[in-house]
Amino acid sequence: MPQVGCACAVCTSTDPRDTRLRTGALLEAGGRTLLIDSPPELRLQLLRAGVRAVDGVLYTHGHADHVNGIDDLRIFSVKQRAHVPLFGPPATLEHLRTSFDYIFNPAVQAVTGTSKPMLTLTPLTPGTWQDVLGVPVLPIAFAHGPMTVYGYRVGDLAYVTDVQAVPQEGRALLAGVRALVLNALWWRPHPTHLSIPEAIEVARAVGAERTYLTHLSHETGHAELAARLPPGIEPAWDGLILEA
Questions:
Q1: For residue 31, how many other CB atoms are within 10 A of its CB?
Q2: Complete DSSP assignment for 58-85
Q3: Mean per-residue pLDDT for 156-174?
Q4: Confidence of residue 182 (pLDDT cuts 50, 70, 90)
Q5: Angle (CA) 134 138 140, round 5°
Q6: In terms of C-beta density within 10 A (0-12 exposed, 13-18 middle, 19 or more buried), how is residue 244 classed?
Q7: What is the pLDDT of residue 243?
C-alpha cells in the first residue's frame, strides 16, 4: 500500500503504518541472519533495515510478490565470496530454478567483469525440526490454493503467511509459540488467504501471547483495524521488530 491508481482513504493516509512494501521478514537467531522470502522491494527493505549480511533465505512459496527480489541477493554472495543458500518447499525451489535460469544454470556464465547471484537450493521437509545453518527451524506445510506454502517456527516465534486455513495438525505444531505472525487479507472470505475473522479464530486457537496480522490489503487502515481487533492481536507494520 498504497495501491497503484487508488485514491481511497487508506491509500492516501498520512499514517506511515499505512505505507507497506510486499511481505517479507528478517530473522536473527543463533548468530545467523536469515531472510524469509525475497519480495520485489527487497533492496529498499534491506537498506531501510541497515542489513549488511544475509546468511540464507527461507522461502514460503513461489509467488512473484515473495520471490521476485531474488537478484538483490547478489550483493551478499559477492561480498561474502560464497554461495547464499536458499531453503524451502521442493516445488518452490524448482520454480526458482526454472524461472531464474540465469542464476541457477551453470552454463550461463557472468560476463567477465560482471557478476550474477551465487545461490544454492536446499529443500526442507515439513513437520520436522531441521538444522538451517545451525538454527533449528520447523517448516509447517499449509495450502495456498493449489500450492503448498511453508510457515516457519523458530523457537517461540512463528511466521505464517499466504495460507487459507490452519488445520489442527498445523495448530499443534504452532502450540506454545509466544509470538505469531499470521496473514489476514481483509474482512470477507478469500479462496487462498485467511480473512481477518478467520485469522482471529486461528490466533485464539494457537494461543500465542501476541499475534500480528500481515499481508493486509488497502481495504482496512492500520488504526481502524487495531481498534477493532481483540486484545493480544494487532496489525503488523513495516519495520516492526519482535523478540521471542
A1: 9
A2: E-----HHHHTTGGGGHHHHHHHTSPEE
A3: 97
A4: very high
A5: 150
A6: middle
A7: 86
**pLDDT tens sequence across 212-244:** 999 999 999 999 999 999 999 999 999 999 987
185-204 as b/e: b if 16+ CB within 10 A: bbeeeeebbbbbebbbebbe
As a whole number, the mean pLDDT across the chain is: 97
Interatomic CA distance for residues 37 and 212, integer angstroms: 18
* Secondary element (H or E) of residue 233: strand 233-235
Please give the C-alpha separations between residue 100 and each of 96, 108, 122, 123, in angstroms, as whole numbers: 6, 11, 16, 17
Q: How confident is the model at residue 172 (pLDDT cuts 50, 70, 90)?
A: very high
Res 167: pLDDT: 97
Give the separation between CA 213 and CA 211, rounded to whole angstroms: 7
CA-based max dimension of the chain: 57
